[in-house]
Amino acid sequence: MLPENSSSPSSEDVGATQTKYTPRYIDIGINLTDPMFQGEYHGKKAHENDLSDVVERAKASGLQKLVVTGSDLEHSKEALKLAEQYPGYIYTTVGVHPCHATQFTSPPTDTHPSGAKLLTALKDLAVSSPSVVAFGEIGLDYDRLHYADAETQREWFSAQLDIAEKLHLPLFLHSRAAADDFEAALAPRIKSKRIKGGVVHSFTGTAEEMERMVKLGLYIGINGCSLKTEENLEVVKRVPLDRLMLESDGPWCEIRPSHASSKVLKEAQEMLDMIGEVPRTAAVKKERWVKGKMVKSRNEPAATALVAVVVAMVKGITLEEVCEAAWKNSVELFGLDETLSNGVEVKN
User: Fold this and answer.
1) Span 314-346, pLDDT tens digits
2) Average pLDDT over every residue of 207-213
């Protein structure tokens, strides 16, 4: 019963309440160690290192945590240096991407071990700092077999999973055009609870594949590449909120004008107003870069806000529901020294 002299809230009141929400995000997959964030493109220097500007734009856009992807041993080490530079804000993963699987079979050098020694180096790095919150990026990629053949990928995916079992870290996973082999490698370890779970990032598979991953207890990472086609949008619509995570996967996977998601954004003015101006700021070509400007076709963490808007529109729910679900899921899986909305503190 309503107190005396009170009345039910009007639609205007409800709208006003919704707009008071300040979106917050965790970008669970950002490749900040890529040379593009140092102004280098395809081996050529185009502008000065602007990584600090990228981080500041992320903060201005509501990004409260970044998880930097480790794609091989060297990049994992560089990611950890960034975590030391931005303590409590940047976290990292450690692992070897399937497209780099030949690093395990390449002749060793003074700085690049191979085989078992590379596995040991990854394990040692993963336990060297609490800023390492996941083991990966590991998995299978049959779309780009010119980098590493399927047999090599499978062998070293399995070997890295053996390491992950000993680390008790969640997994940061990659699966592209390899769903059956990917699931065959993972399912027994997850069902036997030898693996602490994980997220299949940059998900672009079918709805059936997504549902199989969810059934295993894995989370689904959504970025611009997950939103290219109408079929992709239908898959995202079916991702359970309690399995959803958000990411940019920059400097790649931006939302492009040709993508189905771009059309969705044109119909999302109210939500776009909620995320502020930074994610929508016009970018300049790298040759015309000036300090403080985003670079055209170089994706960055601030764009995670746009991904959240598309997900909310596709699902027909509020931006708050999407952001808070993704926040909760990310904090619970990775730790990240944060407090959930229910007051529970989750530490890595």
Assistant:
1) 999 999 999 999 999 999 999 987 655 555 667
2) 98
For residue 205, what are the domain limits? Answer: 24-346
Q: Over 60: is that where the pLDDT of 116 sits?
A: yes
Burial of 6 (0-12, 13-18, 19+ CB in 10 A): exposed
Q: Give 112's contacts (C-beta < 8 A, 6+ positions apart).
A: 73, 74, 103, 106, 118
Give, as one character, the DSSP assignment of residue 187: H
pLDDT per residue over 144-191, tens digit each?
999 999 999 999 999 999 999 999 999 999 999 999 999 999 999 999
DSSP H or E run through 69: none
Q: Which CATH number do you get for residue 259?
A: 3.20.20.140
Residue 163: which residues within 8 A CB-CB, separation 6 or more?
119, 122, 123, 126, 135
**Pairs from 12-19 (Cβ < 8 Å, separation ≥ 24):** 18/318, 18/320, 19/270, 19/273, 19/274
The number of distinct structural domains making up the chain is 1
Q: Give me the helices (H) in 63-139, please.
A: 73-85, 115-126
**Tens digits of per-residue pLDDT, 4-25?**
343 333 434 434 444 589 999 9
Residue 271 C-alpha from the chain's centroid: 21
Report if residue 18 sits inside a domain.
Answer: no
Indicate whether 296 belongs to any domain: yes
The span from the CA of 93 to the CA of 338, in Å, is: 18
Closest CA to 249 of 223, 211, 231, 220: 223
What is the C-alpha to C-alpha distance for residues 226 and 236, in angstroms, rounded to an integer? Answer: 8
> In angstroms, rounded to a whole number, what is the distance separating the alpha carbons of residues 89 and 100?
27
The reply to whether 14 falls in a domain is no
- Rounded Cα distance between 314 and 73, Å, is 37
Angle at CA of residue 306, ends 302 and 310, nearest 5°: 160
Is 204 a member of any domain?
Answer: yes
Instruction: Please report, as a single letter, which amino acid is at residue 303.
Output: A
The two structure tokens encoding residue 83: 């975590």
pLDDT at 344: 64
Provide the pairing of β-strand 171-176 with 132-141. parallel
